[in-house]
Amino acid sequence: MNSNRILQIAYLLFFSLTTGTLFTTIIPSCSQPPSSQITQTYNIPEEYLIEADNIPSFWINTIPEIEDYIKNHVKKGQINHAGTSAGGRIIQSITYGKKRKEGGTTTFSGSLGVSDIRHYRGADSENLVYMAISAVHGYEVEGIVGMINLLSVLETGKDLKGTAWPELTRMADSVDRIVLIPLVNPDGRARVPLKMEPNRGGAPDAFNIHEYLNTGGNRDGTIIGWPAVKEFIPMDFSKVGFPGGYPNDAGVNIMHDDFFGTVQPETRMLFDIAASEKPDLIINMHTGVPRNNYFMTIHRPFCEPQLQPAFDRLYQTINTRLTTQNLRGSTDIALETDPAGADMKGYNLSTALNLHCGALSVVIESACHGFSGTNLSGAPSLHSPQMLVDAQLIAHQESLRFLLQSGGRAQWLK
Ligand SMILES: [Zn+2]
Description:
The protein is of the alpha/beta class.
């Protein structure tokens, strides 16, 4: 770092402190070592960076908080340096239980050719392996908070609110292996300097600030928005006002990486872990549900057609519990658990992970803490932070229940 660069950073930080309108991140270039850090300045409106009052202590989701929690509270799980982001940031995984042994004799595709997954997975093919990831989009923090609270349950039997989860604890002990990655995209998370937005209510424009922070803003201050944010991958940061939390520091939205080309380090990490762990199920936690049915939503993946019945069963299992806990858009169990209600998404990371290792790979979307929506009758639906965490933990718990009851991939296709 030369002296001019130091002065530039110092000036910008000073400007930020005195005006509150310029936010500075120091971003290591993806192609250079961290010593050649560059400065990016983003002119985010001051009101967008207001924190909520009285943030609950269980709402852990910033990079320092995540690192601190893992370092000081994970004792039973194994902490692993899973990978390094495009921006040079460390990505951690936490694993529980016994890893599948090596021993397959063919590729996943080869095992499909002989209609027997054992030839890919090896002798312990029937072991049950659960993998969950969150914050592939860095500022979709509900999944991170849920994963940290899941770690708390796995370590102590209770979430960080003090609620015991005996069924979740028992089922976690009953599967063979759990692999958790709380923050897949630290570059995107680092770009958004907020821990918790104030809830701005349910007015039509109430979601604008969250959407700006999540999908980014144009130079004129307008929101890039979803799905327009997918028109440019990689995103050229010099052409936008604020890149948002979606991409890594190379500008790539990992959900839509160039999977058959040269992949980003975050994608490579996920592929390598998937190939090594050979999970039965991968749950990929996001934030973003329709405002007229403002509840946790499970997307049907575009994957091997023969896995669709297993997906239906997973969908029914999770939504049954969410509905009985008043965490779906109505109390109609038949409606809420009908798998015909799950829209199939296009080819994305879920597809790539499925075809890479045979896992049923599923995206689950959460409501956002920063604004609200309605239930299916049109009544306002406000999710408290406690409810958001409960929905996350129920999704993990019921995913484990589905795995134990269905017997995993080795049994699904029999
Ligand atoms: Zn997302």
